[in-house]
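pls design
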C-alpha cells in the first residue's frame, strides 16, 4: 500500500471518529426526506405533474441540500486540527505540507462520495415510498434520472469546495459560517439582484446540474465546467495558502 493511501486512511479514521459524521448524515438525510415528502404532498393532487415526472423531479431535487452538509463536514476535516492545534504535528508526522494536503483531499473526496451515495439512495427511497402511497402513478422518466445524477455531482463537488474553504479560513466556526453565508445567503441574493452574473457563481451553477427550473441558469454542461473551475481555483488557492501560511 502506498504512503498516500496510508495517510488517507489515517485521515478517514479521523473523519469517522466521533459522532460528527453520523450526525451530519442523519440530520441532512432527515431534512431532505421531509423536504422530498413535502414536495410530494404539494403535487400529489396534480395529475399532470405526477404523470410528467415533475413531482418526482422535485422529490429528487430535495436531496440536493446534502451538498451543504457535505461542504461543512469536509471543511471540518481541516478546521478540527487547527482548532485542536495539532496541524503542525500532523505535517511533521506525514512528511510535509504537500502530503497533508493530498491526504485530506482524498479524505474529502471519500467523505463527499459517502454523502452523494446517501443522497442518491435517499432520493430513490423517497420516490419509492411516495409512489407506493400514491393513488395515481408517480412517474420516473429520463429527466428524473438526469436530476438524480446532477444531485450526486453537486454533493461531490461541494465537499471538495468545503475542504478548500476550511483551508482558507482555518477557524472552525468561521468556516461553517462562510459555507452557510456563501451558499445560502450571498449567492442566492446575487441571483435575485443580477441573475445574469449570478449564474457563474458556484452554488448557482450547481443549480443547473440538478435541473432547477429557475430561469437565467447556464446550460448543464457549461454549468458543470464552471462548477469544476470554481473547485479547481479555490483548491489551488488553498494549496498556495498552506504552502505560505504559518501552521500555528
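designed seq:
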Amino acid at each position: 500500500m502506498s504512503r498516500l493511501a496510508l495517510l488517507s486512511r489515517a485521515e478517514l479514521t479521523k473523519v469517522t471518529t466521533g459522532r460528527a459524521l453520523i450526525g451530519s448524515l442523519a440530520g441532512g438525510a432527515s431534512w431532505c426526506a421531509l423536504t422530498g415528502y413535502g414536495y410530494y404532498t404539494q403535487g400529489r393532487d396534480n395529475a399532470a405533474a405526477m404523470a410528467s415526472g415533475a413531482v418526482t423531479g422535485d422529490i429528487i431535487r430535495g436531496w440536493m441540500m446534502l451538498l451543504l452538509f457535505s461542504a461543512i463536514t469536509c471543511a471540518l476535516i481541516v478546521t478540527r486540527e487547527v482548532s485542536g492545534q495539532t496541524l503542525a504535528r500532523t505535517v511533521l508526522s506525514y512528511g510535509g505540507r504537500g502530503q497533508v494536503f493530498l491526504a485530506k483531499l482524498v479524505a474529502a473526496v471519500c467523505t463527499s462520495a459517502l454523502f452523494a451515495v446517501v443522497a442518491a439512495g435517499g432520493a430513490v427511497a423517497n420516490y419509492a415510498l411516495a409512489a407506493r402511497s400514491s393513488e395515481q402513478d408517480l412517474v420516473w422518466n429520463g429527466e428524473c434520472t438526469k436530476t438524480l445524477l446532477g444531485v450526486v455531482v453537486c454533493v461531490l463537488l461541494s465537499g471538495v469546495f468545503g475542504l478548500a474553504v476550511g483551508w482558507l479560513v482555518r477557524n472552525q466556526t468561521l468556516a461553517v459560517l462562510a459555507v452557510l453565508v456563501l451558499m445560502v445567503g450571498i449567492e442566492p441574493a446575487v441571483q435575485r439582484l443580477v441573475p445574469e452574473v449570478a449564474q457563474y457563481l458556484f452554488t448557482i451553477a450547481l443549480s443547473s446540474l440538478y435541473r432547477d427550473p429557475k430561469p437565467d441558469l447556464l446550460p448543464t454542461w457549461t454549468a458543470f465546467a464552471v462548477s469544476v473551475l470554481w473547485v479547481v481555483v479555490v483548491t489551488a488557492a488553498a494549496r498556495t495558502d498552506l504552502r505560505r501560511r504559518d501552521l500555528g
